[in-house]
Amino acid sequence: MSYSLQIQEAKTVYKDKEGHQFGFDHCWTLLRFQQKWMVEHKKIEATRIFKAPTKNQISINLEDDNGNAPEPAPLKRPIGRKAAKEANKKTKSNEQGDDDEKESSKVRSELEEFRARRLESDRVKAEQLKLLINIEQKQVALREKEIELQARSEETKIMSMDTSSMNPIQAEYFISLQREILAKRAGKNGNE
């Protein structure tokens, strides 16, 4: 009996037994050689050996070795949900460990880069601070010279004033200033 005739006979038996046609042909063609159903078929075959078929039951062997039926490839049965979840957790924990290691090395390298940038920034700031201090010291020295020049200019004016045409109080005031200037100059010259 050919494979297609066996299928047709199985469909007529199903229709007689159930009262309607088999509506899952598309599913059966996809799933018939899956490991789960092969194991299920072997279980049914094992129970058929011990039970004697009744008049209403007709045994149709779909795995006839006459060359018409395609041979299923031996497949390993897929793991169950629980085992799949456990395997997934293990791979995630391994990946997380790898990710943690990668992340920590990435953080270390970023930290080293940050330290290097920070040291360079500190060095540049120190150089800029030295330059600013140097510039400020020069400005202070210039300001002191300006003040000294202004003081000399004032002293020169005071020393060159003619006190004969002034009233006596003004003349006395400027003469005392002239003496202070002379005393200060004498002290500076003595210290040098």
Overall description:
This protein is an all-alpha fold and 192 residues long. The chain folds into 3 domains: 1-77, no CATH class; 81-160; 161-192, no CATH class. Helix content is 74%, strand content 0%. The protein has 5 helices and no strands. It has helices at residues 3-18, 25-31, 35-50, 81-159, 168-191. The protein is rod-shaped. The model has no long low-confidence stretch (mean pLDDT 82).
Question: Gist?
Answer:
Helix content is 74%, strand content 0%. With 192 residues, the protein is mainly alpha-helical.
Query: What does the main sheet amount to?
Result: none
The number of helices is 5
Q: What portion of residues is helical? A: over 70%
N- to C-terminal distance: 136 Å
Low-pLDDT segments: none
The count of β-strands is 0
Output the radius of gyration.
56 Å
SSE order: HHHHH
Alpha-beta classification: mainly alpha
Shape summary: rod-shaped
Mean pLDDT: 82
Strand content: under 5%
Number of domains: 3
SSE topology sketch:
Blueprint: H1 3-18, H2 25-31, H3 35-50, H4 81-159, H5 168-191
Keywords for this entry:
192 residues; single chain; mainly alpha; 0% strand; 74% helix; rod-shaped
